[in-house]
Structure formats: structure tokens, C-alpha cells
Amino acid sequence: MDKLTVRDFDARDKRVFVRVDFNVPLEDGRVTDDSRIRASLPTIVHLMSQGARVVLASHLGRPEGKVQDGLRLRPVGERLSLLLRRNVPVTGDALGPGTEDAIKRIRPGEALLLENLRFHAAEEKNDPQFAAALASYADIYVNDAFGTAHRAHASTVGIASLLPAYAGLLMEREIRALSSLLEEPEHPYAAILGGAKVSGKLKVLDNLLTKVDVLILGGGMANTFLLAQGKSVGKSLAEHDMVEEARALLAKAEKRGVQVVLPVDVIVAKEVTRGTEYKTLPAEKIPASWHIVDVGKQTLDLIESALRDVRTVVWNGPIGVFEIPVFGAGTRHVARILADKAQAGATVVVGGGDSVAAVQQQGLASSMTHLSTGGGASLEFLEGRELPGIAVLLDRPKPTLVRAESPAPAEPPRVFRPAPRASELAAPTRTPMPAKAPAKSPASATTRGGPMNENPAAATTPAPSAAPAGKPAAPATRKPAGSATRRTASAKRKAGAPKTSARKPAATKRKPASAKRAASAGKRSTAKRKPAATKSAARKPATARKSATARKPAASRKAATAKKAATARKAATAKKSTTTRKSTTTKKSSPARKPASARKSPAAKKPASSARRPAAAKKKPRR
């Protein structure tokens, strides 16, 4: 059983109607036991911290549709304010204009408590109009009152059909703890049941007999089983009309091998009041005018022995008249036994008002695995019944299982092909088919150009054309487009050859690097493998071949450049000598100061020693 909880929705700035169980004991207008209020605090604090506007609703006692001042929730609101450390106002009624105005004034992070719901008879009748009026107060419904989950009332079932319904944190803990007792309990498993009547727990007993290993009975209901065994119980509380059912349960337990523990000695009293006379007697010798009020020491020892090895225990109901302290010794002793079992690692779940009170009075609540806030609700849950207040809550969706299908046939691997370049799209290059070379013997393959090329990629790459005989293969390095054409044209002009149109077509310039490398490799391979006749036949036309003048050796080009430089130096030297002779003649004939324009000439900046030397002594330029 897995329900959606307050953790599964966003409560920010939402009005949330929370059904709580604040049915606590009051004395002189004060709360004497606030355990149920404390149990709901985690849900209330969670919603307020999320920024929700919280509307709390509860019942108190059994006013039967009439307003009773002694059952008002104002003392509960004061206790809740003290625990939350913030004010929680209480409305004057659960319905009405004043209540509606108070709810509208709630700010995010605040809470308000409605007056006792059972002041309206429509609450217990699950009246649709009453449920609709409560639903108008909120956007979301949360049930955190496990103690009333077995009741189909307007605040537990009717409103849940009108709003999205979630479980509170206390409800979640209750469901988880009690479900573990029915689904997968750890064995040995023991159940301790007490209380007044067998009739209210007959179905619980019948269901637990299919699950437990030990069944311990006490309180008023044990008296009915003593009658079923043929023993007298005096004036003790018992259900004489349920003796046959009790006898059938004992037979069923014996058949299933369940150990049943009944009182072997009891405490009897003349009256069930404070200060009365009482004594301990064996269970077979009860006086006709006395009342069984508690179990004796031998019975407590027998209970402790039966619980020695158990790993799971559920306890509901006292085993004596717990309301009178002197007759509650047996119940308190059982609480201490169970606390020790829980400390030793066993799972101990305690339910019912008096059983929980016996644990809390001795400060043993923290030792137990779980303390249930529902008496009748926990019993019905243990019967295996679906409680109406839980059934209306939203179920958590189950994960969908994906069925495994046969794998699809594998697709062939995809080959990555890069997008074509812009140059390739503008002018695609066509590569001619290579000419078939005649078959060669291994000896003829080494006659020209050394051994045969061993690179399989170069051997199989188609060559666009054969290189001329004696011409070295073009290097595979990539050159800028048009660089070879510019060098050829410059060389022709220097050699005096007529200008020819040696510019390559645009398609040839735009060949990608991969095509150029393939063409170069093909040229080298063809030049080495083809015979001389084939090479001469595959020469390019004369217009495409470079001029012989452009292919002069590097030494000739260097000599021509040096000769040209020497001629230029001689001319510059002769011009400088003529200028120097003229300036010397002018100085001798006219010693007057030269004008500023003449002083700034480059000839005047020569050293004085060279200016004073006679013209005849100057070194003549070499011819």
C-alpha cells in the first residue's frame, strides 16, 4: 500500500485542508496528554515551511451533533500554539461567514484550527453538502488522522472525493509500520491483545492466527476464553454469548500450532474502584462475588518466557484495569518487557490508547519501534480490511515495465564524407584514365629510376598524364595558385623570349590538394614504369611546355645578375668622380663662401682630406 504524501506536491501559496486527530484527553480545560498533537507536528511544520495556508480540522469526544462547551478545541489550539511557537487561532464554528473570512485572512506559512467538526451531525453522516462546504476552504486535501481512517465521515471520505487527496507524514508512518506486520513480519512473531470485549477483536484474532507464532490474551477479553476452558470468572466482565467463538479460536490456534498464553493467576477485587480490597488467586479459584482486575506474577513470568525469542511483537490493549493505578501494574510490566525487546533489535508496534499511555507514562516511547495513534483503526487494519479513509487517497503510480524486444538488424556503418569545397563545386576536376602499361619482368622494372615503387597507394593511383622523358617528377608540396605561371613568365622576359600565354585554365588552378597529390604520385609512378617510347608520346603540346630559356641553370642566372650589378657600380663610380673634379676646380678659382643651397649637397659632406687632395692624385675609376 503506497500512497502519495505531502512530499509529492508543491504547497507554496496553496490552501491545504489537513484532517488531524486531536481527540486528546482534557481535564479542567487543559490537555493532559498531547501525544496525538505532537504526532501531527511534522506534517504541519512541513506545509507551513513550504509557504502553505494550512486549515486544520479535528473532532473531540462524542458530542453527537450538539455544541458542548466542554468539548471545544480552544485548549487544543493553545497547546498547539505552544508547541509550534506561533499563534494558531481557533474559529467559533466549522462553518459560517466568520470562518470563511478568517480563512481568507490566512497568510502563507500560517495555520488556523476549525472548531469541533462533530458539533455538526452532518460530519458523521458524510453529508455531501457539508463535505462541499469544507472543500471550498482549500485547494488540496491531506489526511493525517489515522485514528479516524476507519470512519467514513465527511472530513475523511466526502471531502477527499472533491479535492486532490494526499497522506500526511503520520499517516505514511502508520501505513508502513502496520503493513510490515501483515506482509513480511520477522519470525517468531507474537501478538498481545487486551481490552474489554472479544466481539470487537474477533476478526483481528482470526486473521492474526494465520500469521503469528505466539498469542497472549489479557484484560476483560481473556475472561471469555477462561469461560471457554470451563473455568469460573465470578463477577468479572465477560461476554457469555461469545464463548463458542472463543472455543473455536482456541481450537484453530492448536491446529495451526500457535502458542496461546492465558492468565494462570489473577488479582481479584471486591469492587472495581480505588481503595477496594484485592488479592492474588489462581485462575481456577475465582470467588463468585469477586472481579478479575489484573494478572498475577506467575502470568507475567509466563508472558516474559513466551516473548524471549520473538523478533516481532504487536500489542493492542491493556491486560488489566489500567485506569486504576494499583490494577495497572501488569500492563506497565508488559511495557517494560517490550521496551527491552525493542532495544535488543526486535520490531515492537504498540497501538491503543491505554497501551500507548502505559508506555509514555514510564518514558519508554523512544524505545519502541512505532506507537500507533489509532486504536480501532489499527485493529481493523490488522484484520486485513481496507480502511475507507486510506482507500480514497491517491495511489502512487507504479513504474511501467518495458518489455524487451528483439534487437533490430544492425545497419551498415556510415562512412563520413566531408562536404565538397566551393572550388570543387565551381569547377569539378576530371581525372583521365591511366594508360595501360605493358607487363614488365622483375629485371626490366629496375632499368630506369631504380627499383620499382613499393607504395601500393602510389602504384594504384591513376595518373592524369605521363611526364616528359628526362623531366623530374613534380614535388608533392602544395603551391599557391598561379605561382608557377608567374615565375615562367618572368624567366621568359629576362631571356628575351616572346611572351606566351602560359596561364593555366581556372579549373586546373582550383584543384584540391588531394587531387594534386594524387596526380603527382601518378606522374612519379608512370615516369618510372613507362618505357621511353610511351613517355615521348605522352608529351604535352608545345604551348603548354615551358620555354627552354626559362629552364636555365641556377649558375647562369647568378652570373647574369652579377654582371648587371658590376655595370651599375661602374656607372655610379664614374658619375661620382666627375662631380668631385668639378667641385675641386670651383674651390680653387673662387675661395668665396658657397651659398646655403650648395653647402647642403651630398658632395660637400665628404671628409676634408679627400677635398684637399688634388684632382691628379685621385684614383681614376676602373674601366
Describe the secondary-structure layout.
Blueprint: E1 15-19, E2 26-27, E3 30-31, H1 35-49, E4 53-57, H2 74-84, H3 97-104, E5 111-113, H4 121-124, H5 128-135, E6 140-143, H6 154-158, E7 165-167, H7 169-182, E8 189-193, H8 202-208, E9 214-217, H9 220-228, H10 243-256, E10 259-261, E11 265-269, E12 278-282, E13 291-295, H11 297-306, E14 312-316, H12 329-343, E15 347-351, H13 353-361, E16 370-371, H14 376-382, H15 388-391, H16 422-426, H17 456-460, H18 483-494, H19 506-509, H20 513-529, H21 532-537, H22 554-589, H23 596-599, H24 608-612
Parallel strand pairs: 1-4, 1-6, 4-5, 6-7, 8-9, 8-14, 9-10, 14-15, 15-16
Antiparallel strand pairs: 2-3, 11-12, 11-13
Helix pairs in contact: 1-2, 9-10, 11-12
Task: Please tell me about this protein's structure.
The protein is an alpha/beta fold and 623 residues long. Among the domains are: 1-173, Phosphoglycerate kinase, N-terminal domain (Rossmann fold); 185-383, Rossmann fold. The chain has helices at 35-49, 74-84, 97-104, 121-124, 128-135, 154-158, 169-182, 202-208, 220-228, 243-256, 297-306, 329-343, 353-361, 376-382, 388-391, 422-426, 456-460, 483-494, 506-509, 513-529, 532-537, 554-589, 596-599, 608-612, and strands at 15-19, 26-27, 30-31, 53-57, 111-113, 140-143, 165-167, 189-193, 214-217, 259-261, 265-269, 278-282, 291-295, 312-316, 347-351, 370-371. The protein has a six-stranded parallel β-sheet, sandwiched between helices. β14, α12 (329-343) and β15 form a beta-alpha-beta unit. The radius of gyration is 57 Å and the shape is elongated.
